[in-house]
Amino acid sequence: MGRGVWRADFHSPLLGTCLESLIGGNHFRAWIQNFNATSGSGGAVFLAVSQEEDSTQHHNIVPNGYNLGRDNLVNAALGTHQHPFLPYKFVTTSADLTGLLAPGAEGVNHNIAQDGVVKLLKVDRRSTFDFGF
Question: What is the mean predicted confidence (pLDDT) over 74-83?
Answer without folding.
Answer: 93
